[in-house]
Write a structure and sequence with these properties.
Elements lengths: L14 E8 L5 H11 L15 H10 L2 H4 L2 E8 L2 E8 L8 H10 L2 E7 L6 H12 L4 E6 L8 H11 L4 E3 L1 E4 L7 E4 L4 E5 L7 E4 L6 H18 L1 H8 L6 H13 L4 E5 L8 H11 L7 E5 L6 E5 L1 E5 L6 E5 L7 E10 L3 E10 L1 E3 L3 E4 L4 E4 L2 E5 L4 E4 L1 E3 L3 E5 L9 E3 L17 E7 L5 H14 L4 E4 L6 E5 L2 H15 L3 E3 L3 E2 L2 E4 L3 E9 L6 E11 L6 E5 L11 H11 L13 E9 L7 H18 L2 E15 L3 H10 L3 E8 L2 E9 L6 H8 L5 E11 L2 H9 L2
Parallel strand pairs: 1-3, 1-4, 4-5, 5-11, 6-11, 34-35
Antiparallel strand pairs: 2-3, 7-8, 8-9, 9-10, 12-13, 14-15, 16-17, 16-25, 17-24, 18-23, 19-20, 19-25, 21-22, 21-24, 26-28, 26-29, 26-30, 27-28, 31-36, 32-33, 33-35, 36-38, 36-39, 37-38
Helix pairs in contact: 7-8, 7-9, 13-14
The chain binds guanosine-5'-diphosphate.
Length: 714
């Protein structure tokens, strides 16, 4: 059908841009694969093997071809004679990739949150849940693996209510459980669906078995109560004891789900092909189309929040004023790039979401974030195992542009005559580094090329060559993040590398204010050099970065040299005076100075600023800052003591402990420097039962004794 697919669904109301989000191993991959199977685009069922290690999991993702890897996949599903276009946006389930999840959440309109029916809510599922909350993404909960030994639909559901939202309620409940799980009861239609074959295609729709009548009534009442909370008409009928029709209930659930006053809960077993088609029906029924999604706009000045429905807010690139766009193809074009990827057959792909208007292949487009014009070579849409060239995309679509040259993730593309900048996507700075070198010397160029590709695809991954040692340094969000890149180098680029020990990405800053006068004066023989800058350095709050304040009066330093001083400071901040780490969170104010008519120029002032900053820092009690990680560890009760003891020995601080039935979730903060190898330590301490995850949280001052040890090693 390639070539015609795109024409199938034109009405934006029939679009569903969704993400499938989950804790690792809850079944995101299997569920996505089954969706693609049922939507007719993938015709062979594959399986993930039990007990796959983290690396195997990546491996398999890759071996499954474009399907799972692709940033966005388009599929079609029929419900009540309407054909829907479902764009599935990939959301990595892995704990080290929160930034990746965030960028997907930015461009999707609704989400299916997959839970493991035995585990219920797990650390990553709760984290992603609250991220989705922030981006106003309506959600359906899917309790998977109901065929598994130990699965408990109701307990998992209760953990959702307890940890995520008391607005979650089942719209279907399982018939049988574990090996006997063989059907679902629809609480809206009050019908039972019984599965009769392995592929889940032979489904009998029948009356609710008598032994499930009471339970079904009980949960249906719960559902109606929640819907009534969000819908006055249904509330009236409910209170007066009137019958609520199936149609009314569907409309009510939809309304409540869209406004996030209800989170429908469904059950299933993706592996055993039960419940996935029902899930798809409900995605179409209850998740929003692009025009029904809410957007938040935060005023950059007042920080006031405004909510928009059916319109996306942004700013004018020049005046910064608030502008909104209807999510309609009749408006001027605007879209957001959410992922860059390199495809070995077509080259650079920029995945983007169209919010308004239309864009044709072969045309030009304005990147309002960078202020550049780009040619749109080809536009392609990804399906499960094929790629389709399309002529034109329009509001609601998700596709990829081939051949953009200077556009980055988070950039806005729009009509140059009617520009808008949408909110960008922030990525955290890397906290950990490795030095690497190719095992074969002659592979140097190949390595540089491969790293250029990998860094362009993943904004949280950095690579650079150390100018002093010639070593290649790769940096990222965690040890695992970098291990995975090394694995990709090996498998996809056939590049074997040696790697050094992981290193913490320390920063430097100051803790007090200090004044310093830097005088550069070389006037003996030949052309002289002269610059004199009187400066004050001050500490800023964490995360504020750098601020330059020009308080020069009466031309003590001529105007034309001021930008050079700013530049000199910035350059100097790349290497702090303590250990050569980047400098952050300082204010540099220039208050006075002198210059020489002949011997001063922009270069001399830049040089004086460069050295001056280092001297100023030394006077202002400089300190090292280290990355602190937010650590979540899910562990059976009997190992809690061992884990908390371990964390304390690692300078960790336990922040919270949450009951998860038989397991406890320990939430702690600990310095990254202490956490290398913590995954295997925890495995040893807990007989392999701990489920850990971590992500960068913030930077914090390194204790004095440790600072000395770190700097002593330099
Ligand atoms: P992901 O990490 O969330 O993408 O999870 P996967 O889809 O890779 O699944 C993780 C493991 O759980 C694999 O071994 C799957 O075969 C298994 N799995 C997935 N869905 C089910 C299910 O419905 N029932 C059972 N018993 N196992 C499942």
């Amino acid at each position: 059908m390639a070539g015609t697919d795109y024409q199938l669904v034109k009405d934006i109301k029939l679009y569903r841009n969704i993400g499938i989000i989950a804790h690792v191993d809850a079944g995101k991959t299997t569920t996505t694969e089954r969706i693609l199977f049922y939507t007719g685009k993938k015709h062979k069922l594959g399986e993930v093997h039990e007990g796959a290690a983290e690396m195997d999991f990546m491996d398999q993702e890759r071996e499954r071809g474009i399907t799972i890897q692709s940033a966005a996949t388009t599929a079609f599903w029929k419900l009540n004679d309407e054909l829907y276009r479902i764009n599935i946006i990939d959301t990595p389930g892995h704990v080290d990739f929160t930034a990746e999840v965030e960028r997907s959440l930015r461009v999707l309109d609704g989400a299916v949150v997959v839970f493991d029916g035995k585990m219920g809510v797990e650390p990553q599922s709760s984290k992603v849940w609250f991220q989705a909350e922030k981006y106003l993404v309506p959600r359906i909960c899917y309790i998977n693996k109901l065929d598994n030994i130990g699965a408990d639909f109701y307990k998992s559901y209760e953990s959702i209510v307890e940890h995520l939202s008391d607005k979650a309620t089942p719209i279907n409940i399982p018939i049988g459980i574990e090996n006997d799980f063989n059907g679902l009861i629809d609480l809206v239609a009050m019908k039972a669906y019984i599965y009769h074959d392995e592929l889940g295609k032979d489904i009998e729709i029948t009356d609710i078995p008598s032994e499930y009548q009471t339970k079904a009534q009980e949960y249906r009442s719960k559902l109606i109560e929640l819907v009534a909370d969000a819908d006055d008409e249904i509330a009236m009928k409910y209170l007066e004891g009137e019958e609520i029709s199936e149609e009314e209930l569907v409309a009510g659930i939809r309304k409540a789900t869209l406004s996030m006053k209800l989170f429908p809960v469904l059950g299933g077993s993706s592996l055993k092909n039960k419940g996935v088609q029902i899930l798809l029906d409900n995605v179409c029924r209850y998740l929003p189309s692009p025009v029904e999604k809410d957007y938040i706009y935060v005023d950059p000045e007042t920080k006031e929040e405004k909510r928009f429905v059916g319109k996306i807010p942004g700013n004018h690139p020049k005046t910064n004023e608030l502008i909104t766009r209807e999510l309609s193809e009749n408006e001027s074009f605007c879209g957001l790039i959410f992922k860059l990827a390199v495809d070995q057959h077509v080259g650079n792909l920029a995945f983007f979401r169209v919010y308004s208007g239309k864009l044709k292949a072969g045309s030009y487009i304005y990147n309002s974030t960078s202020g550049t014009k780009e040619r749109v070579g080809r536009i392609v849409m990804m399906h499960a195992n094929s790629r389709e060239d399309i002529e034109e995309v329009r509001a609601g679509d998700i596709a990829a542009i081939v051949g953009l040259k200077s556009s980055m993730t988070g950039d806005t593309l729009c009509d140059e005559n009617n520009p808008i900048v949408l909110e960008g996507i922030d990525f955290p700075e890397p906290v950990v580094k490795f030095a690497i070198e190719p095992k074969t010397k002659s592979d140097h160029d190949k390595l540089a090329e491969a790293l250029a590709k990998l860094t362009s695809e993943d904004p949280t991954f950095k690579a650079q060559t150390d100018t002093e040692t010639g070593q290649v340094i790769i940096a990222g969000m965690g040890e695992l993040h970098l291990e995975i890149k090394i694995d990709i180098l090996k498998r996809e680029y056939k590049l074997e590398v040696n790697k050094g020990n992981p290193q913490v990405a320390y920063r430097e800053t100051v803790t007090t204010e200090a004044r310093h006068r830097e005088l550069l004066k070389k006037q003996s023989g030949g052309a002289g050099q002269y610059a004199d800058i009187d400066m004050i350095i001050r500490p800023l709050k964490r995360g504020e970065g750098y601020r330059f304040v020009d308080s020069i009066k009466g031309g003590a330093i001529p105007r034309e040299y001021i930008p050079a001083i700013d530049k000199g400071f910035r350059d100097s901040m790349n290497n702090g005076p303590l250990g050569g780490y980047p400098v952050v969170d300082i204010e540099m104010e220039i208050v006075d100075g002198t210059y020489h008519e002949v011997d001063s120029n922009t270069d001399t002032f830049k040089t004086a600023a460069f050295y001056g900053l280092k001297e100023a820092m030394k006077k202002a009690n400089p300190v090292l800052l280290e990355p602190i990680m937010l650590v979540n560890i899910n562990v059976p009760e009997e190992h809690v003591g061992a884990v908390t003891g371990y964390l304390s020995s690692k300078r960790g601080i336990i922040k919270n402990m949450i009951d998860r039935g038989k397991t406890k979730e320990i939430i702690a903060e600990a310095p990254l420097a202490e956490l290398f190898g913590y995954v295997s330590d925890l495995r040893n301490l807990t007989s392999g039962t701990a489920v850990p995850s971590m992500e960068p949280s913030h930077y914090q001052e390194v204790p004095k004794n440790i600072q000395e040890a770190v700097l002593g090693d330099k």
